[in-house]
Amino acid sequence: MTEQKVRIAQLSCGPEYSGVQKEINDAAAAVDAEIFFPDLTLRDIKRNFHDYGIDVRSADLKLAIARAVALVEGDVEADAVFIATCFRCAEAAIVRNELRHYIHENSPLPVVSYSFTERTTSGTLLTRMEALTTIARRRALLARERQTGITMGIDSGSATTKAVIMQDNEIIGTGWVPTTEVLQSAQEVRDHALQEAGLLMKDIEAIGATGYGRFLVGEEFGADLIQEELTVNSKGAVFLADCQKGPSTVIDIGGMDNKAISVQDGIPGTFTMGGICAGASGRFLEMTAKRLGVDITELGPLAMRGMGSDVPMNSYCIVFGTQSLVNALAQGHSKENVAAAACHSVAEQVYEQQLQEVDIKDPVIMVGGTSLIAGLVRAMGDLLQTDIVVPRYSQYIGSVGSALLSSGFIRKEQ
Amino acid sequence: MTKIFIYPTTSLILSDMVARFGHTPIGSALAIRERIQTAGIDSPPLQMTPEDAKKGLRWAAVEVPSGVRGRMSLYGPQLEEAEAAIIITDAEFAFGCMGCARTNELLVYLIKKKKIPILELRYPADEVEGNEFVAAIRDFLRDLGEEHD
Questions:
Q1: Residues of A with CB below 8 A from B51's CB?
Q2: Domain shared by A261 and A348, yes or no
Q3: Is A64 helix (H, G, I), strand (E, B) or coil?
Q4: Which of residues 67-106 of B touch A (CB under 8 A)?
Q5: What is the CATH number of the domain that holds A158?
């Protein structure tokens, strides 16, 4: 029996005129979903728009608002919502953000928003669409709170590849290498995790794969679950931080992009993914460590000893950020202060570019390799005025989430 | 016969009125029909591609949102061939509705900048205004016809 397509309601202004509607449709089709535009009568459009109360001028935004109200009120049925407006349009940005909050707070529908340009491709949208459909289609799987049996999770990330083996809700083996050749890196971490766990591949009852290389790795290893990192990381984060019930916020500053996820009961509600430039990612911190002549693992403790407020640094763009870095050192600032300023700058970029788009609710959990950089965690905590939670094994978050969720695929006869 | 740019460009009522007085209406129906009938492009629903947003750079700068530039790639060439224009402001959705307010602002400005005969009217609020509205459009179209005769 074939699975029913996930129906994603599109609320948008401009994609058809930007030539990217096909890209949106293609991204949805790639994850066996379909985009549709909720039909409303003219009277309902006027009434819903009026009732919502935000007086925008663009008719397409009025229509998007009316459609959002219809979805929340149950006049139109959908499995998920995709909100898309033009990048650089202030009016649309206001509506996009307000509608995302409105739908998140007033309905169980998973929602993601995106500001596109004419360069947006289906590939860029794929992970977001995959996360939307996963939440809609696999709520039962995502509700899993305990790992059972013996499972392996592999996270083939852009910067590092990680593996975890879990048995009866405990982590018993791990592996971690910088990503070079995707399959070779995955095999290395798998072998390391098996060795640490004292197991053989035949002992593994289910495998989950996530990260950029998930399709390649998942196919090679015969994974039971191949899943994008937004849902997997949310699950791993609340599992490790032991807060599977209630709200939480997951921040993952990655090597290539960042994820900020507003989670409820372990399931993502709203999320953002991306970042304008590598200046707002772990890559900038890697560059900083290299320039300071220290290992990346030493950058965090170094930053904790410094005061970044005296060092002007803005990594909105990685090129300008690097210039700031060089200038700061040339002006005689200490390595400690420069390290602290670099951490603050990355945290500030993530805060300004992404955290405005999700609801920040305590506990805030930082995960991924960058969560081990204490200076970055402190800087983020300062900006958010909260104590950030960094659970043990936070760098293995994707692998843990994959291992946990894949245990739902262990067949009973095994 | 005069080529008359209509605003809202989607107004079928306005387009019909212009045609009834023997002029050629220029609006989005024409521009979009051309695209939809063009074979070889697979970019539904309007058969617009990212190339169109780039073509829109002729009328709007690169920092202008892609949706505005894409729309201008439809309306810009039409505006260039227009010899007169009718602008209806604050129109009802059912009369003719254009999606993007920023495009509308730019488009109305470019129409006015072109120095062609323009009739600018506010959409009528009641029947009396409605009669005056139709009469004003009729007179404008008739006068244009006489000028050309």
A1: 19
A2: yes
A3: helix
A4: 67-71, 74, 93-94, 97-102, 104
A5: 3.30.420.40
Its domain, for residue A128, covers 6-137
**Whether residue A200 is found in the same domain as residue A90:** no
Q: How many angstroms separate the CA atoms of A59 and A52, rounded?
A: 14
Asked if A214 and A249 sit in the same domain, the reply is no
A14 vs A215: CA distance, rounded Å:
32
What CATH number is given to the structural domain containing B18?
3.40.50
Tell the residue number behind the tokens 């992970």, with chain if given: A127
Best residue in B72, B98, B100, B107 for a mutation probing chain A (most A CBs within 10 Å) = B100
Is residue A236 in some structural domain? no
Contact assessment for residue A254 and residue A261, using Cβ atoms and an 8 Å cutoff: no
Amino acid of residue A23: E
Tokens of A375: 């200076």
* Tens digit of each residue's pLDDT (9 = 90 or more) over B71-89: 999 999 999 999 999 999 9
Q: Which residues contact A92 (CB under 8 A, 6 or more apart)?
A: A13, A14, A58, A61, A85, A86, A115, B65
pLDDT digits (tens, 9 = 90+) for B85-119: 999 999 999 999 999 999 999 999 999 999 999 99
Q: What is the pLDDT of residue A148?
A: 93
Distance CA B121, CA A9 (A): 37
Answer yes or no: do A18 and B98 touch at CB < 8 A.
no
Backbone angles phi, psi at A66, to 5 degrees: -60, -40
| Count of residues making up chain A | 414
Q: Which residues of B are less than 8 Å from A117 in CB distance?
A: 53, 66
Say whether B101 and A91 touch across the interface (CB within 8 A): yes
Q: DSSP string covering A388-413, please?
A: PB--TTGGGHHHHHHHHHHGGG--TT
Best of A12, A13, A17 to disrupt the B interface (most B CBs within 10 Å) is A17
From its phi and psi, is residue A385 left (phi > 0), alpha (psi between -120 and 50) or beta?
Answer: left
Instruction: Give chain B's domain count.
Output: 1
| pLDDT tens sequence across B10-48 | 999 999 999 999 999 999 888 888 888 877 778 888 889
Walking along chain A (414 residues) 10 residues at a time, the average pLDDT comes out as 83 96 95 96 96 96 98 96 95 93 90 90 88 86 91 92 96 93 95 95 95 93 92 93 92 84 85 69 84 85 82 76 83 87 87 79 92 90 93 94 93 52
